[in-house]
Specification:
The complex is a heterodimer.
Chain A lengths: L13 H9 L2 H23 L4 H17 L1 H14 L2 E6 L2 H15 L3 E4 L3 H5 L2 H7 L3 E4 L2 H8 L16 H15 L11 H18 L2 E4 L3 E3 L4 E6 L3 H7 L3 E7 L3 E2 L5 H12 L7 E6 L9 E7 L3 H5 L15 H5 L1 H6 L10 H12 L4 H5 L9 H5 L6 H14 L1 E5 L2 E5 L6 H15 L1 H13 L13 H5 L11 H8 L8
Parallel strand pairs in A: 1-10, 2-3, 2-4, 4-7, 5-8, 7-10
Antiparallel strand pairs in A: 5-6, 6-9, 11-12
Helix pairs in contact in A: 3-12, 9-10, 16-19
Chain B lengths: L2 H12 L10 H4 L13 H14 L3 E6 L3 H12 L3 E4 L14 E4 L6 H5 L3 E4 L3 E3 L4 E4 L16 E8 L3 E2 L2 H7 L6 E4 L4 E5 L2 E4 L6 E8 L9
Parallel strand pairs in B: 1-12, 2-3, 2-4, 4-7, 5-8, 7-12
Antiparallel strand pairs in B: 5-6, 6-9, 10-11
The chains are: A alpha/beta, B alpha/beta.
Amino acid sequence: MSGTFVGMPAFPAFPVAAHEAVNNQTLRGNLRHATHTIRAKRAKAVAEVSDWAELREAGKQIKDHTLRHLDRYLVQLEESVTAAGGVVHWAADAEEANRIVVQLVQETGESEVVKVKSMATQEIGLNEALEAEGIRAYETDLAELIVQLGKDRPSHILVPAIHRNRGEIREIFAREMSEWGRPAPEGLTDTPAELAEAARLHLREKFLRAKVGVSGANFMVADTGTLVVVESEGNGRMCLTLPETLISVVGIEKIVPTWQDLEVFLQTLPRSSTAERMNPYTSTWTGTTDGDGPRAFHLVLLDNGRSDTLADEVGRQALRCIRCSACLNVCPVYERAGGHAYGSVYPGPIGAILSPQLRGTASEIDASLPYASSLCGACYEVCPVAIDIPEVLVHLRERVVEGGPVTREGNKVVLRPAKGHAAERAAMRAARWTFAHPGALRTGQRLASRTRRFHPRSLPGPGKAWSGTRELPTVPAEPFRDWWQRTHGGKDGAK
Amino acid sequence: MSSRERILGRVQRALTDVREDDTPYEQAVRRDYLREHGNRTVEETVDLLAENLADYRAIVHRCAESELAAVIGRLLSERGAGSVVVPPGLEPSWLTAVDAEQITDRAENTPHELDRVDSVVTACAVAAAETGTIVLDGSPDQGRRRITLVPDHHICVVRVPDQVVSSVPQALQRLDPTRPLTWISGPSATSDIELDRVEGVHGPRTLEVVLVSDQPSAEDNS
């Protein structure tokens, strides 16, 4: 079995990628504009409901309860989807999920599919897997279309093209649409309404002829077998109702036990993500319906590191996530570094705790993600299912530095402490010894004070990386304890 | 071992630290959130529905049952609709003033044929005031999901106050999950360009909602 694959090949560590991003003025401007726009709106949409705290707590409890009995609910969901005319497939990892979908498409005899925006299919790299088998996947969400046409990578959970401004989008449409189908209208300007119209015209022919649709789902209801897709544009409805075959790839953690549970999430999700009372379109379907919509419905249940994440007592709360992206929009680090620096389809605070758990911390990028935060806690505050992201970040930092037991592909393994932190550990050991030996501490402090004019502004050797992003503290002319003894704690009036 | 067993086994092993808990689900989650927000009279709830629909750029009209056919006929002719698709179970008396060619939806109608139709007229299953949402459930007077999607102009009739509830929890309670549902809150929109909302992408770009009341003296706000 192959290792868990989340999206894309090797990425540089977060600090390296972020360093590049923060120097990109256009990117900084685009991100600042978009995240600040949505922040104020979200706050307003949330303030409209007086019971937000209760809804948030209920959402947390529903998800925790489901995760705690996940095996039971998965079996129940399988039964109810099957009873409603759907076919359920199980995929332990990305490779297996891709194999299943490719085969299902091949069985229809079709060579193209239309896609609803879906994080799960991004995560497993489905488009690339289909392409390798000669099947073309058309992204139909506006932002996904911008990313696909621009041969780009997504940088936000909700708005994957958030790093692009209207001028750049116009440019991409005018240049690339003809390669994929209907060209952009002549004289296309950069007004959002015109850009949306261009996407409407470009995609319509694809919707009308599509025979296979591929989607994810926001929720799966165990007791009824109902799937839910929450969207804005209507591209989701097109993909869910016009094709003859529908294939939905959904993470196993997306279950809620009952139909009634939707009353919580259909209130918290739209307000948290697009800051709307309700998103324009929500579709729910239970298996297949005679004469309305696809005749065949396949549900691919995806693990791909989720059961490993579930095994971590602190980290499992990340599986409560409903992918609203509120945490990205309020994060000071995300706002400056942008989504690409996180090296995963899941950027921002939630990505910093999700990717290293789904993929493990073996790669440079995954080992660095728990540090991609100032631990300010804004993400926790806005999370509609109360994921304590700072808590998980600190927990994952400890795992990276200290090593310890984790679960990978269902097996318990023991991680070795990270090598990169040897210097830090040595420094901490030296500090511990010094503080335990007052004489040595006094001598060292006096020496530091007397030589302070000769101190460098950055550290040499292994300390260089540390001081590269930090100011070294200035050493006072006299150690505090010397000052205290000399002046009897300031009583002698000495300065 | 099948992947099904593998995944279920992994999930079970992942939960070995969790202690047994047989609390029935009805008691496992604290549901002390509100069933609806605020106290409103029936009229106020209908007003709120109209307000929130309009806030998300739906065009709202109000009329009495006796005026409905005339209102639908007028809206279609103002739109300049040459053809209108109707679900097979739509109340025939609603369409007596329609000049446009009427196409009753049938299973054989292809998406391309639907794409040439100008408008669609349907009833609805329920409407939620707090969010300005109308829900279609595929009943004979609402038709297949695609007919309210492909045409660019949707006229949806809501019977007030019978079909109006206050909130999302109340709407869910009235709906049958085994039916394919479409929740609609305003015309198609996107926030994908600079996280700013723009109306009009793939679904109908014009959504007109007619709130029809059995009271004879309702005014037309259009």
